[in-house]
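User: Can you write out an input/output pair for a complex, sequences first and structure second?

Assistant: Here is one pair. Inputs:
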Amino acid sequence: MKIAVLGAGNMGSALLGGILKAGVVAVGDARATTFSEARAAEVRSRLGVSVTAGGNAAAAAGADIVVLAVKPGTVPKVVKEIRDVLNEGQILISLAAMLPIRAIEDAAQCRMPVFRAMPNIPVVVEEGAIGICHNALATLEHRAQVESIFRAVGVTAFVDEEQMDAVTALSGSGPAYIYMVIEAMMAAGVKMGLSREISLRLSEQTVLGAAKHARESGLHPAILRDQVITPGGTTIAAIHELERHGLRSMLISAIETATIHAGKRTDVLLAEIERQKHT
Ligand SMILES: NC(=O)c1ccc[n+]([C@@H]2O[C@H](COP(=O)([O-])OP(=O)(O)OC[C@H]3O[C@@H](n4cnc5c(N)ncnc54)[C@H](OP(=O)(O)O)[C@@H]3O)[C@@H](O)[C@H]2O)c1
């Protein structure tokens, strides 16, 4: 499988690094592009693949999978650059937040499978959560190929495109919420007299361990929570405070607001792309 990653920035290079490490694609079969030569040289030396500043069409030509990892507003421009070399046998994957598949199809003018993926930043440690959707031309075989790529950097879930705003709000932005939880737990430990270092280490591991336990046990989180509560004990005293301050309600509202916001940002992005077409 030959892959071209157009826009090897934070997300593009993290994805490419994971794919190479997992052996899904061989180093010699991967190409990437950036805007600047400085960034190209940095990614080239870090990943050992061919990286050029510009040259998107040359990188995309002959690739089985072309990944669009530039900023959302730049995607239509890059797709237009490569559309003469695109063909129906290739797979196009966009990582751009908020950008609908129809905008990519419109720029590509090629009847080909188009996927849209929403990864999150833990892909850099191969623990990403990646929501994926696709157009009607994608077959089960295409889905399996795309899944093998994202499995190299995390856990995948296929959804309908109209659910991508919810994915963005839940897992795309989710790491920021959890970093806040870790930060707050660390501050609490410090307030109670623990050192910063010990407080941070215990907070991080508690989040990591609880997530791993939830996944591996397969039990509903409410059951797991109940299992650590002793009647009249310390945990229920803390949980009463969390309920009093509305922890669950707060997170539900935050994710609901972010979902609605993502929808509004899509409208703004599409209006901007439309405006660019006429300038
Ligand atoms: N970061 C995240 O957590 C995250 C999560 C989900 C989705 N995404 C999506 O991933 C995409 C990339 O985000 P990012 O955070 O990785 O941004 P980034 O670090 O700024 O990466 C964008 C890359 O695109 C390159 N680039 C710009 N114009 C180009 C062109 N004409 N041809 C080729 N390369 C070009 C830039 O090169 P230079 O470095 O040389 O300027 C840069 O390396 C976005 O669409 C974003 O919505 C990101």
